[in-house]
Each structure stands twice: as C-alpha cells, then as structure tokens.
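Predict structure. Chain length: 129.
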Amino acid sequence: MSSSLPRQWRNGALVCLAGLAAAMSSRPLRAAGIDGADTACTQLLAAAALEFRTKRADELYCQMPPHIQSGYYFFRLRGRYPAPPHADADWAGSNLMGDFAVRRRDGAVFYCDDAGQPTGRRLGLKRTR
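Prediction complete.
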C-alpha cells in the first residue's frame, strides 16, 4: 500500500483513531437523570444524610408532592421526632430542615433561598478537612 504520508504519521494517526474509538465506546451516552419525584426524593434523602450527620436517614422525609419547575424538583425536607413521654398516640413531631431543589438532569441537590430558587450551594458533597 502506497501513501504520500510518512510511515510515522500514518502509524500515529491509526493509534489516535483507535484511542478515540475506545474512548467513545466506553463513554455513556448521557448522564443518568432523575425520572420521577420518588427518585428525586431518594436523591435528596441520600444527600441530606451526608450533610446533616445529626439525623438518621430514616428520620428524614420529603414533603410531597414536590413543585416541578425549570428542570428541578423542589421539596421541603422534614425531620421526624419521637413522641415525648405521655404524648397522645396520634402525636407526630417534625421540623422543617429546609427547602431543596433536585436537578432533573443529573440529580444534583441544592439548597433553595427564601424565594424558592436554587442557591448554587450543593447539599451532600463530601467535605475535606
């Protein structure tokens, strides 16, 4: 086979194309998105369990239904508290942990401001010391 390119360039081009093909075949087609309110709530609970280390994950819950807007699920996160001694059987204690947005595109969880907009501060990221 005859070519006008020097042999080193042909070999380099083949190696480059082979590497590009391998990289493209191992790359996902798109990032995993959030497919519904239940999945978004699960994502929020996982992030909150990392962030609020004083609460157990089973004590946290999403106030449903969420508000859905602009590619986000907006939730109020609440924490359950056990009944105090001598409380009535129907006592249900909870407090508002905050307002949060779960981005539908990739499941990133953000704090929300008083106007209900994501602040850009992410919830549940690992902290470095």
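Summary: Residues 37-122 form one domain.
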